[in-house]
Amino acid sequence: SSFTILKAHDGTAFIPMTYSIVACDVERGEVGAAVATGWPAVGSVVPWVEAGAGAVTTQAFTNISLGPHGLALLRDGAAAEVVLERLLASDPERELRQLGVVDMSGRAAAHTGDGCVAEAGHITADGVGVQANMVERSSVWPAMLEAFEHEGGELADRLLAALTAGEREGGDVRGIRSAALIVSPSAAGERPWARLFDLRVDASSSPLEDLGRALAVARAYQALSAGIAAAGAGDLEAALEQSARAWGLAPDDAHVALWHALVLMASGREDEARSLLDEALRAEPRSKEFARRFADSEPGAPLA
Description:
Elements: H1 2-8, E1 18-25, E2 30-37, E3 47-50, E4 54-60, H2 66-75, H3 80-89, E5 97-103, E6 108-112, E7 121-125, E8 128-132, H4 140-150, H5 155-168, E9 178-185, E10 197-201, H6 207-232, H7 236-249, H8 254-266, H9 270-283, H10 287-295
Antiparallel strand pairs: 1-2, 1-8, 2-9, 3-4, 4-5, 5-6, 7-8, 9-10
Helix pairs in contact: 2-3, 4-5, 5-6, 6-7, 6-8, 7-8, 8-9
């Protein structure tokens, strides 16, 4: 009975009745995972991604340890199917688990135990695995794969498109409360903790929309960092290009607006700079004090 199952598992086992995707884009050199669920803080439990190793999602009546153990096997060079077989062999309650694994060669493997809550299933293709349980209907995971394969752009965009398609098809039968997206570089020799994106929405009535906004802001700050680095190297043309891109991605972010204004000022475009600076200071008055302190420090010298 359900009461027997509840007694047999600790509380963490019930966090991620959910849907997820693991994928490796060999050409772009990226590996990642994305997930959404009706329980909060799914990003702390389900997705496991390591640069140069691969990605694992562990869900349903979740055995969290399968995530790091799977990454260890991938790190040692085991193929996705071998990793899956070893993880399942080590787990006496494998029929309650759902797993997705992808390796650096783009091989994917997945498992849905007979004890997972309906609707439950998985699908794999070259470089991608999709897993879902306790979802509205059995068309959820095929819809996710189709969206992933047809979406253009970077891996992060394709992962988010898959989650969105899964929700559009019905998603978690309880609705969704949290979502997460992790993308790492896949090249051998990368620091294992390296991240291109590590984004989580832990409790929201619209986690996928929030995740999309977080992705845009993350890209804005990546561009901003590149612009600051270019300014520090004396390349104001590149600095202006990157800070403009950052502002375009996050036009309502006062910190991004401040930095773009400083780069405009350093580039001799004072009228534009002062107008944008006024906007930034109205949005966040403390930005003036930040700019003063930063200008007094060594990193701020190129823009002072």
